[in-house]
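Example record

One chain of 441 residues, shown exactly as stored in the release files.
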Amino acid sequence: MWLLPAFSLISEAAARVYYRLTVSGAQIPGSGPVLLVANHPNSLLDPVLVSAVARRRVRYLAKATLFTDRMVGWLVRGSGAIPVYRQVDDAQAMDGNVDMFRAVHAALDEGAAIGIFPEGLSHSEPGLVPLKTGAARIALGAAAGHSTAFPIVPVGLVFRRKHVFRSEAFAVIGQPVEWDDLAGRTADDQDAVRELTTLIDAALRRVTLNLERWEDRPLVECTEGIWTAQWGADTDEAQRLARLGVTTSVLRQLRETRASRWAGMIGEITTHCRRLERLRLKPGDLHRDVRIRAGVTWGLRRLYLAGLPAFLVGLAGYVLFRAPYQATDRLTRIVKPDRDRRATYNLLIGIVLYTTWVLALGAVATWRLGVLAGISAVLVVPVVGLIGLWTRERWRGAGRDARRFFLLRSRRTLIETLRQRQQEIAEGLREMYATFVVGRD
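Predicted structure tokens for this chain:
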């Protein structure tokens, strides 16, 4: 477990470099026993993100085959993971799970945080898959000797494009599961196991995006954007996911009841969202201030991006790390991992190549300029790379903002028509949501 003491800090650094990570929701207890239950859409990067938001030592349950994997075995063993033996891997090794439960219960008794992914396997489905009962059995077994419930905290992981470097990722921490009335029962009580599994499933669904099919995602997110643009909304990601869940439920019910009076509304939303997409706009853009004064203020605040220092840092970061970036991409393509593990391989290969590259630059600097220059290179080059990355992202963002500003000013008649149509849709959404909340169609 040599890596466990630093795993949370390393995970946060890795997660925030690879993704543009947003964390929201409740707080994970900083001490004492806690069972962290999370969805599993992104292989070994899921424990990385959970550790990043937990900000404390977390020991994970991992399938036993990972401990001998040539690529990730060292990481799994070093992070203090606890092996789980599955019948699909080796039916004769299933007896080892007795030791697994014993190790988990001992860790919880000592006040540790345990992480588990109740879906069992990483997947690319549009929503949660049926949960295994392991999390419930662990919790009931650990609480049986004390008849006292400890926190079971759901952590929802949502990725925009999970295999893409610097794409958006969201970690939503939910409220602890309320299971005090079950704490006095045992892991052998099948009714208690099923009931607690159902509670965990409900808690996870409140902090994850659960679509019926991936094709629904643009429509669901655009619908939520229309609602937010017109009526405003809490910026908390958990609240956003709750609204997305309502829209997903509406779509599912519309498919089941094709004669629904809301089918026309969904068609109108689809048409409106497609028009916005063609213009590369979002619903909230229709309400932006496009007066000259606002444009000037925007430009002055971003004037530093046009300066020589920003240009030099952005260019230096690009030049310094272009080689390891391309090499990471090529090696990952050669390995050909499946979709669920692509980001994991990108990150692990990238850590090795980028570290080697920085050390090589330091060695060259030492050879040509001396030891002090070599040490300085090893310390300064990563900082330049990160600042350069940040600068280039700001350039791209400023370019998108400028294009949007001129589009909104130059096509005011069209924008006003879209704004009025969006307001009408938002009024219809309010009625539709109210109808579905009380269970009518």
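Notes: The mean pLDDT is 90.
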